Amino acid sequence: MATGGAACRQAPSPRPPPSRREGETVALYVHWPFCVTKCPYCDFNSHVRATVDDAAWRAGLLADLAHEAERLPGRRLASIFFGGGTPSLMPPATVAAIIDAATTHWPALPDIEITLEANPSSVEAARFAGFAAAGVNRLSLGLQALDDADLKILGRPHDLAQGLTALDVAQRHFGRVSFDLIYDRPGMTTASWSAELSRALGFGTDHLSLYQLTLEPGTRFTALAAKGLLTLPDSDTSADLFELTRSLTAGAGIPAYEVSNHARPGSESRHNITYWTYGDYAGIGPGAHGRRGGAATERLKKPEAWLAAVQARGHGMVSEVALSPAERATEALVMGLRLGSGIDAALFAARTGTALGDVLRGDRVATLAAQGLLVRDDRGLRLTTAGQPFVDAVLREIAA
C-alpha cells in the first residue's frame, strides 16, 4: 500500500490524442472518503473516522484541484461529481468552495451539471438546502432498498422512513434527483422486486440507478457467502430480475441507457456519460482516478496518506502514466459497450487515436452479431437487448 511518503510515479507526458485541444470540455470528480458506517457489500474507498478536520480537508481538496487545473489549461468545465464515501457528510461551505474554485480554474458551461451523492439520514437531509445554495443542481440519493429488513441486511444506517423523507426533501431542493436501489438481494423474487420497483417508479424522479448485488473481493458479504451464511438468488432468478427491471423501467418511460442506469430522455447523467464515452476527467481526493490528455492518474487511497502528501507537495497523486493508443482503445471499448447507444466509431477514434476495428476480433464480432447479441455498422458497435445482460462475456470475446 502506498504511504504519505511515496513519490508520485510519473511517466513521460504522453502525446495527447487528436481531440485534446484547448477549449474542449473536462469533467471533475471529487472523492470524499468518509462514511458513518462501512456497508458489508461496499468495495469503494470509504473509511469510518470518529472526527474529520474539515478545514484541513477543504484546503487539501482545493490544493489537489489546483494541481489538476495547472495540467488542463484552457478547458471548459462540463460537470462536477462529488462521490465517495458519503459526500453529504461534507460541510456545504466546503462544497461551495470547491465549486467556486473549479469554475474559476475552468469556465463552466452554461448548463453545467453538478452532482452530489447523499445518504438519507435525517442529519444529512437537513443539509440539502445548503448544498443547493452552494451550486449543486443534481442529487443522487442512496436509498438502496424500500424494505426495512433488507436495509438492515445491507448495513444501511437509515430506515425506510428516513429514506423517503430525504427523497422528499431532495425533490424540493434540486431540479434533478436520482436514487439508487440494489436488487438481486437475498431472498428476492420477481414478485417482490416487481412490487418494489413499481413503487420506486411512482416517486417521480427522472433517473434511477439499479444495481444487481454482487460479491466483491474483500467485503464482509463475500466472507459470509464463503461460510454459507449469505445466499444470493440463483442465476436463472438473477436473469429474470434483470429482464424485469428493463421491462418495468421502459414501460414507465425511464429506459436503460447504460447497463445499470435508467433515465427519461434528456435526463441521463452527463458526468457519467463522459466516463462511458472516454472523455477527459480530472479526479481529486483519496483514491480518485482520472483520465486526461492521454494519461491515467491515481491518488493515494488512505485518507491520512493523501492529506499528508497534499500538505507536503501540493497534490495527492501517486501515479501519472501515459497510456498507449492500444490501452486507451481497450479502456474505451470496455466503457462504451455498457451504453445502450453503444460506441460511436468516429468519437472513439478521436478520443483514443485508434480505429474501433483495430481493437476488435472481427471473427468473434461477426459470430456474436449472427447470434443476435451485437450490432456492428458504419456508425459503430452496440449490444442488442439480448446481448446487454452478457456485456462482460461479450467483451472477453471481442477484444483483440
What's a concise summary of this model?
This protein is of the alpha/beta class and 400 residues long. The chain has helices spanning 54-70, 92-105, 122-125, 128-134, 148-153, 160-173, 190-201, 220-226, 235-251, 270-276, 303-313, 325-336, 345-352, 362-370, 391-398, and strands at 9-10, 25-32, 34-35, 47-48, 76-84, 108-118, 138-144, 176-183, 207-212, 256-258, 261-263, 281-284, 289-292, 295-299, 317-322, 343-344, 374-376, 380-383.
Lay out the secondary structure:
Blueprint: E1 9-10, E2 25-32, E3 34-35, E4 47-48, H1 54-70, E5 76-84, H2 92-105, E6 108-118, H3 122-125, H4 128-134, E7 138-144, H5 148-153, H6 160-173, E8 176-183, H7 190-201, E9 207-212, H8 220-226, H9 235-251, E10 256-258, E11 261-263, H10 270-276, E12 281-284, E13 289-292, E14 295-299, H11 303-313, E15 317-322, H12 325-336, E16 343-344, H13 345-352, H14 362-370, E17 374-376, E18 380-383, H15 391-398
Helix pairs in contact: 1-2, 2-4, 7-9, 12-13
Keywords:
globular; four-stranded mixed β-sheet; TIM Barrel; 38% helix; alpha/beta; nine-stranded mixed β-sheet; 400 residues; single chain; 2 domains; 15 helices
Q: If you had to describe this structure to a student in words, what would you say it looks like?
A:
The protein has 400 residues and is an alpha/beta fold. The chain folds into two domains: 9-276, TIM Barrel; 343-400, no CATH class. The chain contains 15 helices and 18 strands. It has helices at 54-70, 92-105, 122-125, 128-134, 148-153, 160-173, 190-201, 220-226, 235-251, 270-276, 303-313, 325-336, 345-352, 362-370, 391-398, and strands spanning 9-10, 25-32, 34-35, 47-48, 76-84, 108-118, 138-144, 176-183, 207-212, 256-258, 261-263, 281-284, 289-292, 295-299, 317-322, 343-344, 374-376, 380-383. The strands form four sheets. A nine-stranded mixed sheet has the order 10-11-9-8-7-6-5-2-12, sandwiched between helices. Strand 13 and strand 14 (295-299) form a beta hairpin. Helix 12 (325-336) packs antiparallel against helix 13 (345-352). The chain starts with 8 loop residues before the first strand and ends with a helix.
